[in-house]
Amino acid sequence: MMDLNFPKYIKVADLGCSSGQNTFLAMSEIINTINVFCQKWNQNPPEIDCCLNDLPNNDFNTTFKLVSSFKEKNFKSKVPYFVSGVPGSFYSRLFPRESLHLIHSSYGLHWLSKVPEGLEKNKMSVYITASSPLSAYKAYLKQFQRDFTTFLKLRSEEMVSNGRMVLTFIGRNNMDNPLHRDCCHFWTLLSKSLHDLVIEGLVSASKVDSFYMPFYDPSKKEVKEIVGKEGSFEIKDLEAHEYDLGHCNQDGSKRSKSGENEAYYIRAVSEPLLVAHFGNAIINRLFSKFAYHVSQHAGCRNKTTISLVVSLTRK
Questions:
Q1: Strands 233-242 and 305-314, how do they pair?
Q2: Residue 290 near residue 314, CB atoms below 8 Å
Q3: pLDDT value for 242
Q4: CA-CA distance, 289 to 6, in Å (whole number)?
Q5: Contact 47/10 with Cβ under 8 angstroms?
Q6: Contact 133, 69 (CB under 8 A)
Q7: Distance between CA 41 and CA 47 in Å, rounded?
C-alpha cells in the first residue's frame, strides 16, 4: 500500500479461484488486511475491484450465488469492494495493461498448459518417478519453464509498477536426483492404483502408458532461475512449507480415514482428466485402490513434496 502511495482504487485478481465456499477466503483476507492497514496509517480505504479468475468451465454460477454470503461476512469492513468474474486461462492475457495492483494464486501454477512432449519412454507412470528416464524430467521442466515464463510475462504487462504478486504452488525439496519422488507421492500412488486395475483386467497397459499428468513440482532453485531470467519481477520472499494431505504419522486406527480423505482430494483435482482418458466406469474402483495405498504409506516421513510461497514485486 505504501509502495503504491495509498491509491484510491485497487484492482485485485485471484487466479485459479475455483468455486465453492473457499473461493472467497483469499479475498476476505485481502480486504481485512487493507482495512486494518488503512486504519493504522489513518488513511481512507481504497475501493477494491475483486476479480475472480478460472477456466471457462469453472462453476461461476455457484461462485456468484455466494457473493451475498461473502458480503455478509465482511459487513463490518469499511472498504468498498466489487466482485467480478474473469473466465480464461492464466497462460493468456486476462486484464488491460497496467491495471492490476495485487495478484494472488493458490495451488494453480503447478498445473501445466499441456502435457509435455517426449514422454513415451515413461511407462506405467502418470508422472515422474525414480524409475523414469531422465528425458521425462527434462520434458516436464522444459514445459514448466515455458509456462511459468509466459505467466510472468503476461502478468508483467497487466500489473502497475510496484504491484505485488503472491503465488503458492506445489514444489519439491532440492534433491541431487531430479527424478526422486517419495514413496507416498500422490501421483506415484495413483500410478500404483492404475497398475492394479491393469492386473485386474479393467484397464489396458497401453491405455495407462499413454496417460500423463500436466503437472510439475519445481524446486526453489528452478523458480528463482525462471524469475531471474524473465526479468520483470523481483523476488521479495520465497518460502518452503510442509505439504501434507493428512496421511503422515497417523496411527493404525486413523490410516483408513486419512486414505479416504486424500483420495477425495486427489479425485477432485484429477477426475476430469482421468474420465476424459479412461472413461467413468473405473473411477470409483481406482480411488478405492488409491485410498488403500495411501493408508499403507501412512508412516512415510521422507517427503519430497512441499508448498512453495513466493512474493514478487513488479519492477
A1: antiparallel
A2: no
A3: 86
A4: 54
A5: yes
A6: no
A7: 17
- Amino acid residing at 118: G
Note the Cα 181 to chain centre separation in Å: 18
State pLDDT tens for residues 297-315: 876 766 789 999 999 999 9
**Residue 248 in grid coordinates:** 503422515
Report CA 35 to chain centroid distance, whole Å. Answer: 27
Q: Calculate helix-pair angle for 134-158, 220-230, nearest 10 degrees.
A: 50
pLDDT tens per residue, range 116-167: 999 999 999 999 998 999 999 999 999 999 999 999 999 999 999 999 999 9
Write the DSSP string, 239-300: EEEE---S-TT--HHHHHHHHHHHHHHHHHHHHHHHHHHH-STTHHHHHHHHHHHHHHTTT-
Sheet holding 9-15, edge to edge: 81-87, 47-54, 9-15, 100-106, 159-172, 305-314, 233-242
